[in-house]
Specification:
334 residues, mainly alpha, two-stranded antiparallel ribbon, 2 strands, globular, binds zinc ion
């Protein structure tokens, strides 16, 4: 597949798509069944389906019954941590291996023309974005996320979290799972917007933004404070009546879902030859321009509502420049 049929490459070798990402059709007042069905399919497949499958697999094979969970014990926390750790290393590693080590499609459909491994920098541990991002993701963020997940399972088992009986209200719980990705997007937008506030940005979020050219290893490369806030999405189950599976699903949505914005490619060539779209562009633009796209806007157009949306178009660029100009004027006036 020729990427120049679907986009343009500049002199630096950075590729950009001709077709810009858009919000869900119903936010634009379009309710045609075809468009709604296409959006719904995109909501399910592939990313949320992957998350649901991993969450179900963990629920059946890794997480013990409520009796064991009632006592906080390494006997079940350690296997849970090991499964999370190995599962996530394997999942993220598969993308890194195929697209950044083997480079099966080289720079085709790659937003940034360079590969992080070819660009050593002092901002990273060991001057290596790959080593830095791997260590921060898997020695900092995954343990924090697992601690929150384990704490919630323990709380549910002891009746400290509001639980809904699955045999009495199955429909409500299905709805909770179905809407969990929307909650994740809302939560992420709010915490992400907060850590872009000057002092918090410098202290906390700049760690994640060291990767201007993100790869899969960058996805969970965060300061511990951000790691806690990010995986804290599962803590909503302490307030919203649901089920321990919803807490597990929210953990998986944060852990396995973080890869989407950090793939770096607009299309990923699969072994069979197909190359589906990745949905990575809005967050790639966030890493490039910093103060746009605090979420992906795939479910809730929060950046559109708050004026920070950039879809990669000339109009998006102009909106961003005008916003920066207004901000500068405000700062000068103060
Ligand atoms: Zn990011
Ligand atoms: Zn950010």
């Amino acid at each position: 597949m020729d990427d120049l049929q679907q986009g343009v490459r500049n002199k630096r070798g950075d590729w950009a798509p001709n077709e810009y990402p858009d919000v869900a059709p119903f936010w634009r007042g379009h309710f045609k069944p075809g468009a709604l069905a296409a959006w719904l399919w995109g909501y399910l497949w592939p990313w949320n389906a992957v998350t649901l499958v991993t969450a179900l697999a963990w629920w059946w094979w890794v997480i013990p019954g409520a009796d064991a969970l009632r006592t906080l014990s390494w006997a079940w926390v350690l296997p849970l941590f090991a499964a999370n750790w190995l599962g996530l290393v394997a999942y993220y590693g598969a993308f890194e291996w195929r697209y950044y080590r083997q480079r099966v499609q080289d720079r085709s459909f790659k937003y940034n023309g360079k590969f992080p491994a070819d660009q050593p920098s002092d901002v990273f541990w060991f001057r290596s974005q790959n080593i830095d991002n791997f260590l921060r993701s898997f020695l900092v963020s995954v343990p924090i996320g697992t601690a929150i997940e384990a704490g919630l399972l323990w709380a549910f088992a002891n009746g400290w979290a509001p639980a809904v009986d699955a045999s009495v209200h199955p429909g409500y719980l299905v709805l909770c799972v179905a809407l969990a990705p929307v909650l994740h997007e809302l939560h992420f937008f709010v915490i992400h917007r907060a850590i872009h506030w000057g002092p918090l940005y410098r202290w906390v979020h700049s760690v994640h933004h060291n990767s201007i050219n993100p790869s899969p290893w960058s996805s969970m490369s965060m300061h511990p404070v951000e790691g806690f806030a990010y995986f804290g999405v599962a803590l909503w189950t302490l307030v919203i009546p649901s089920h321990p599976f919803v807490a597990v699903f929210l953990f998986h949505a944060a852990a396995f879902g973080a890869i989407v914005g950090h793939l770096g490619f607009d299309r990923l060539q699969l072994p069979g030859g197909a190359a589906p779209k990745s949905s990575a562009y809005p967050h790639y633009l966030h890493h490039k321009f910093f103060e746009v796209n605090y979420c992906d806007n795939g479910y809730l157009p929060l950046d559109q509502w708050f004026g920070s949306w950039h879809d990669g178009s000339a109009e998006g660029e102009q909106r961003m420049q005008e916003r920066f100009k207004r901000k500068k004027e405000r700062l000068n006036a103060a």
